[in-house]
Specification:
By secondary structure, this protein is α/β, with parallel strands linked by helices. It has helices at 2-16, 40-43, 66-80, 87-90, 114-119, 126-139, 174-191, 201-208, 214-217, 243-248, 253-269, and strands at 98-99, 105-109, 147-150, 195-199, 222-223, 236-240.
Length: 271
């Protein structure tokens, strides 16, 4: 175990000292909380019970039906056409999600940033490269084996009139989250994952309906409060640090390693 951890940290070292300038960074708890702070209204956001039709839990990989695949494609097109909030008018591309439509695990971040808005894919900047390396090093997976999405599908910008500007990110508002959140639940309903990994404080607080910071929530499993698959079939949730937090604070790598090892054990037990 110690040798594996040392190898993991060594492989991440070249990345974790790079200051991120893209994506939606999640600063560690000790960082300056006045920069892009999480709005207080998000902390108080109530968790609503799902009104979606329940579905059966996930089966084995590769069993996604043609009908479900068509539903995923239709949902993606609906998201691209969405104008439920101001983000739909200012963004360059809707960032629907990427990965296996029958993935056992879904990784959920806060929202797309500059790079994601331009490429139309989540986690494609330095944070995404680090996430890919963590998937490979600890889980032996590629992003094609999991599903990666965000709470909001469009880039929240401080100055929406200048989408070409770097450093133009901001946290999504409560109205933007409320407008976009149903899309994520519908994605989960179609993918039917065994578990969710929330990346960062905002994703964790919104999905679990808690006020605690990521450092107090990580390291253990939680039940997703929305019963998408009906009573008795909860989706497990593992909160962990956003990759951008590792870029800012390499000391968080060990905690992330522990979280991912717990995820690996869970996936192996739920083949």
């Amino acid at each position: 175990m110690a040798a594996d951890l040392a190898a993991y940290i060594k492989q991440l070292d070249e990345d974790t000292y790079i200051q991120p300038d893209d994506g939606m960074p999640q600063a560690p708890e000790s960082a300056d909380k006045n920069k892009n702070p999480v709005p207080e209204e998000i902390m108080k956001m109530p968790v609503k019970k799902s009104v979606l039709k329940t579905a059966k839990p996930a089966g084995k990989a590769g069993q996604k039906s043609g009908a479900a695949g068509a539903e995923m494609a239709a949902l993606a097109e609906e998201i691209r056409k969405c104008r439920k909030c101001q983000l739909g008018s200012s963004r360059l591309n809707a960032v629907v999600g990427v990965g296996a439509p029958d993935a056992k695990v879904v990784f959920v971040g806060e929202g797309p940033g500059f790079q994601e808005d331009h490429k139309g894919e989540p986690f494609v900047g330095r944070s995404g490269q680090l996430l890919d390396k963590i998937l490979d090093t600890v889980l032996g997976l590629k992003r094609e084996d999991v599903y990666i999405a965000n709470i909001v599908k469009c880039h929240p910008m401080s100055n929406p009139e200048n989408p070409e500007a770097h450093g133009n990110d901001r946290p999504p508002t409560i109205d933007e989250i409320s407008a976009c959140r149903p899309y994520l639940d519908r994605q989960l309903l179609l993918i039917k994952p065994r578990c969710i990994v929330t990346l960062g404080s905002v994703a964790t607080k919104v999905l679990l309906g808690v006020t605690q910071g990521i450092s107090s929530m990580r390291g253990r499993w939680h039940d997703y409060p929305v019963e998408l698959f009906g009573p008795g079939h909860p989706i497990k949730v593992m909160p962990t640090y956003h990759p951008a937090a590792l870029l800012r604070n390499p000391n968080l790598k060990r905690d992330t390693w522990e979280d991912m090892k717990m995820l690996k054990a869970f996936l192996e037990q739920n083949e």
